[in-house]
Amino acid sequence: MELIAKTMAGLEEVLANELNSIGAQNIAIKKRAVAFSGDLKVLYRANLELRTALRILQPIANFTARNEHDLYKKISQIDWSKYMSVDDTLAIDGTTHSTYFTHSKYAALKTKDAIVDQFRNRTGKRPNVRVHNPTLRVNLHINQDQCSVALDSSGETLHKRGYRRESGEAPMNEVLAAGMVLLSGWQADCDFIDPMCGSGTIATEAALFAYNIPPLLHRKEFGFMNWKNYQPDLWHTVVKEAKDRIRTFDYQIYASDMDFRVVSIARYNIEAAQLTDKINLKRSKLERLEASSEKGIIIINPPYDERLSTDDIGGLYDMISSHLKHNFIGYTVWIITSNNEALKRFSLKHSKKLVLYNGALECRFVQFELYAGSKKKG
Ligand SMILES: C[S@@+](CC[C@H](N)C(=O)[O-])C[C@H]1O[C@@H](n2cnc3c(N)ncnc32)[C@H](O)[C@@H]1O
């Protein structure tokens, strides 16, 4: 099967590496997506195990269309009885980057019409549309006049791991958090600290990675389970094999935040992820933390002063860098922020800088090495 894993900007390469490790073939990086090929086992593993994929799609048709009539006609030419029956329910997700199709919802509506009309013409009955939990989710992507139609094997987006029961004010997308952990280069070979943990997303994704726990282990429903080619035995084997690969982790994962309320939310979420015994969570200001070992990795998602307002954002970043450089020598720090001015107050020289998007905010994800003697900016 030819397949596509969708992701966020900046995570394409780590996703390609993940795909390589689950046995995918012909891996090719695209914009916010990675194309690959694989059998049903690879498809199931992709949905269960990939940390940086949002959805796994199976393209079924590519064609050119410049108006709604073309689109309707081309969709009608696909034999939909191969993928669903009249008793199934249907949802269409549409995205358009096109001067021919300016409203993605309208393009999705035309696609839906073409599919239900095909069933009505053939059987006299039409399948129902269901936005939530349909039996078949179809993805329509239009780039100018290039249309691609794909079946969504994931169903609900894969960032919904199922452990986020509640969130703080600016919760991070789980796929972005996992992507940051993978991009940081951490090999689960030292302690991990998330000192501004909010609802606990980064620490949770770090723990799932450290123990090699599949991120979607607790999800019960995936789109492919309603497909005609679903093989439950193969799925159960894939889950069992992934569970057998869960490993031990010899270091510590620490998560803390100064806000009492968000720490209790993090506790609730970590419990839902069944990671309570794997993450050391406490309420603390960053400026009161001390290193617990000689080396480790710190990932910080501080307030940016965009969604959360902080009185003195520059002073906060100044405090973070000076506290870390005096108390965490030997550690590697990564910080994500959209606030470039505040980042300038970080009185350290960076060793890597990447671009990521936290929601709509363009962010820098920046690495600093903390070692004695060369702490200051050049
Ligand atoms: C952008 S949020 C983190 C969101 C988190 N990554 C999540 O997924 O929910 C920033 C957090 O920094 C915390 N914070 C701000 N100043 C702090 C300080 N001095 N020490 C510790 N935490 C602080 C806030 O309470 C807030 O929860």
Highlighted features:
Rossmann fold; 10 helices; binds S-adenosylmethionine; alpha/beta; 378 residues; 30% helix; eight-stranded mixed beta sheet; 2 domains; seven-stranded mixed beta sheet
Topology summary:
Layout: E1 2-6, H1 12-21, E2 25-30, E3 33-37, H2 40-49, E4 55-64, H3 68-76, E5 89-97, H4 104-123, E6 128-129, E7 136-143, E8 146-152, H5 174-183, E9 191-194, H6 201-210, H7 232-244, E10 253-257, H8 260-272, E11 280-283, E12 296-300, H9 313-327, E13 331-337, H10 340-343, E14 350-358, E15 361-369
Parallel strand pairs: 5-6, 5-7, 9-10, 9-12, 10-11, 12-13
Antiparallel strand pairs: 1-3, 1-4, 2-3, 4-8, 7-8, 13-15, 14-15
Helix pairs in contact: 2-7, 3-4, 5-6
The structure holds S-adenosylmethionine.
Residues 168, 170-172, 196-199, 201-202, 257-259, 262, 285-287, 301-303, 308 line the site of S-adenosylmethionine.
Task: Summarize it.
The chain contains ten helices and 15 strands. The protein has 378 residues and is an alpha/beta fold.
What do these coordinates show?
The chain has 378 residues and is an alpha/beta fold. It folds into 2 domains: 151 residues, VC0802-like; 163 residues, Rossmann fold. The protein is built from 10 helices and 15 strands. The radius of gyration is 23 Å and the shape is elongated. The mean pLDDT is 94. The structure holds S-adenosylmethionine (SAM). S-adenosylmethionine (SAM) binds next to helix 6.
